[in-house]
Amino acid sequence: MLYWLTALSDGGDFFNLFRYITFRAGGAFLTALIFGFLFGRPLINVLRRRQGKGQPIREDGPEGHFSKAGTPTMGGLLIVGALATSTLLWARLDNGFVWLILFVTLSFAMIGFADDYAKVSKQNTKGVPGKLRLALGILIAAIAGYWAAWLHPESLTNQLALPIFKDVLVYMGVLFVPFAVLVIVGSANAVNLTDGLDGLAIMPVMIAAGTLGIIAYAVGRVDFTEYLDVHYVPGTGEILIFCAALFGGGLGFLWYNAPPAAVFMGDTGSLALGGALGAIAVSTKHELVLAVVGGLFVVEAMSVIIQVLYFKRTGKRVFLMAPIHHHYEKKGWAEPQIVIRFWIISLILAMIGLATLKVR
Fold first, then answer.
1. Do 205 and 188 contact (CB within 8 A), yes or no?
2. Assuming Cys at both sites, which of 28, 109, 148, 270 could form a disulfide with 245, CB separation 3.0 to 4.6 Å?
3. Complete DSSP assignment for 248-270
4. What is the C-alpha separation between 351 and 14, in angstroms, rounded?
5. pLDDT at 39
């Protein structure tokens, strides 16, 4: 919205700054951060009054989690509110990629909100039926996949770009949309599975968003794509503003989610942020790089899949408990130890993902 202030510029004054994506990204970050600090405590107080007993705790979960009883959930409202407000304020509103990612983020946030509300109101951990959640997620992701294919330049439409092998494009045709659904829905649910300890999910999400923001900015500039020898996707530079807003909103939330958490993100936040990461990857043609940058989420999701399949086949468990962060809890690792080590792993994977921009 503030981009339109450039109409008041003569090319050499303060208003000219709003032409620059980097300046507006900084503004989006600060706006989202301030939003989180201003509205965090009032939101937590409202959620605590409304929810009473807070998020129900799994009876078969690690023993240490019972001390968290009474902690309110739906804290994802703070992150989503911060990033949506900041993005609408600082991004160009004539950019299709901005609206695509906001659509996915807000739609998955509504699914998560309904799930959190069902859990809190019924005081059980079941929430919205899994099949319904999955069906709605697939529908949203399919719309996003078609939308992205329409926004992409003709040379990249329905194509899969390969990292490292940068001259190679794999034509997917009608399979591109199902592939986009797999990326977006898979990312949303992987982040949701990771959100099991105080601060565990939000920092890796911020790291991944920051990395994808840099990639989006690079692939949205002709000069950068020529130097890096990656595919040029016009308009994706504006995604950096969304990513900066997510980073700022995430920091604001982490202030209250750091152990011991005053509020949980809930499915409201985890599904929304995971879906956003998937939508950004699809928009920038870096779907495979997301599997590297978000490798922690992949491992968390795979640990659940492996546990379920192996148990059904043998009646035995591979892990003491899935997702894998609970396995380490059962082994006696302290919660902060797990969280910080997983943050470090996320940062390492992000650096590897960034390296794919130049390595070939």
1. no
2. 28
3. HHHHHHHHHHSSSPSS--HHHHH
4. 35
5. 96
